[in-house]
Write a structure and sequence with these properties.
By secondary structure, the protein is of the alpha+beta class. It has one domain. Helix content is 34%, strand content 24%. The chain has a 6-stranded mixed β-sheet with strand order 2-3-4-1-11-10, with helices on both faces. It has a 4-stranded antiparallel β-sheet with strand order 5-12-13-6. A hairpin with a 2-residue loop joins strand 12 (294-301) and strand 13 (304-312). Helix 6 (153-163) crosses helix 10, helix 7 (167-186) crosses helix 8 and helix 7 (167-186) packs across helix 10.
Length: 364
């Protein structure tokens, strides 16, 4: 299974006079990281080409996120060459607002103990942490669509605090509402069932618990309550030093679990920079396996939580409509939270001074 991320940076000190990005500096930085790994040093003696793995692409200027999403979909739709180390890093220039992107793609098998060195190098390039979901099946489809949307982290926190939920509850409830809107838009109504696997407490070799997404519930507050009740037994994730390794582990856990439509895991993503270029967005990508329709990931980057969506282009050509539906569903929750005033702090009652003891009459 191919894993990866789309990372958007300010060009900052990497910007060239012609407005492009200093790709050679990024290649040199990558080579410095890889040279620390003896397995990759041996691979170089067998015809390893850094130019092959660190690729350069440019969007028609001024490039926007729609163009970047189309390019990312093409990159993740292409299979990695099994005759070469199974990773690619695309440097994409031409984005508007003086930004550039990195598209990192690698095979999940690189996280096996004997082959994890490549993944460690790519994880060093990527400051992002990953939260992942996928929809059924086992192998990747041939053609993908990719989309993403940011949720304001402060708004998510407000929904959690005022409606009594956790971050994962809110994301799953918004996703359920978005899927319901999509089915209604298609004219079929919100029928059928969808199941989510939530491997927050998965250890190696242990299957993930599964819950039902309430697509048939029209009221957003009730939808959130049903998700929250179903996830009450889910515990916090185990700490991990490599977010991408955790993503691969969760994908393997999902493959060994009862079949589910969505797999969700919550992992923190620290802010970071690359050679002085500030990270603006981090969107992990987990393409859906064959037989599935949708893949969803989420990660915190700066003041936003980015939800990444990937889908089989044949089965879900209207992926952007799902993104709009998830945004609208979350906005319903945000408005509910804003309308509910936080409980006012109780003023402590004034304490009466203790009664003075009566004076005893003097003995005569």
């Amino acid at each position: 299974m191919q894993l990866g991320a789309v990372l958007v940076f300010d060009t900052g000190p990497l910007q060239l006079r012609n407005g492009g990005v200093d790709v050679e500096q990024i290649r040199a930085y990558t080579a410095e990281r890889l040279s620390e790994l003896p397995e990759l040093s041996a691979a170089r003696g067998q015809g390893f080409s850094l130019d092959y793995h660190v690729r350069h692409a440019s969007l028609p200027r001024p490039g926007d996120e729609r163009a970047l999403k189309r390019l990312a979909a093409r990159v993740f739709s292409q299979a990695l060459d099994p005759g070469k180390p199974l990773w690619e890093l695309w440097v994409v220039e031409g984005l508007d607002e003086r930004r550039f992107a990195l598209i990192a793609k690698l095979d999940g098998a690189l996280f096996e103990p004997a082959r994890g060195v490549v993944a460690s190098a790519l994880a060093a390039l990527s400051p992002s942490g990953l939260l992942a979901s996928l929809l059924g099946g086992r192998t990747a489809p041939a053609h993908l669509r990719i989309d993403w949307l940011p949720l304001d982290a402060a708004d998510v926190a407000a929904v959690c605090n005022r409606l009594g939920a956790r971050e994962g509850d809110v994301i799953l409830a918004a996703l359920a509402g978005g899927l319901r809107r999509l089915f209604e838009r298609r004219g079929g109504g919100a029928v059928g069932r969808a199941y989510a696997s939530t491997p927050l407490c998965v250890a190696n070799g242990r299957a993930a618990p599964r819950i039902r997404l309430p697509l048939d519930e029209p009221e957003p507050r009730a939808r959130l309550g049903l998700v929250r009740a179903a996830r009450e037994r889910v515990t916090a994730p185990e700490p991990t030093a490599s977010p991408l390794a955790a993503l691969a582990r969760l994908a393997r856990a999902a493959a060994s679990s009862p079949r589910a439509d969505v797999v969700l895991a919550e992992l923190a993503a620290p802010a970071g920079a690359l050679l002085g270029a500030r990270l603006r967005a981090a969107v992990p990508i987990l393409p859906p396996p064959m037989g599935g329709t949708l893949g969803v990931t989420a990660t915190r980057s700066g003041d936003c939580i980015f939800l990444g969506l990937s889908a089989d282009a044949v089965l879900m050509p209207d992926l952007s409509a799902l993104a709009d539906g998830v945004a609208a569903s979350f906005d319903e929750l945000r408005k509910l939270a804003a309308a509910k005033k936080p409980a006012a702090a109780r003023r402590p009652r004034a304490r009466r001074p203790p009664a003075r003891p009566r004076a005893e009459p003097e003995a005569r």
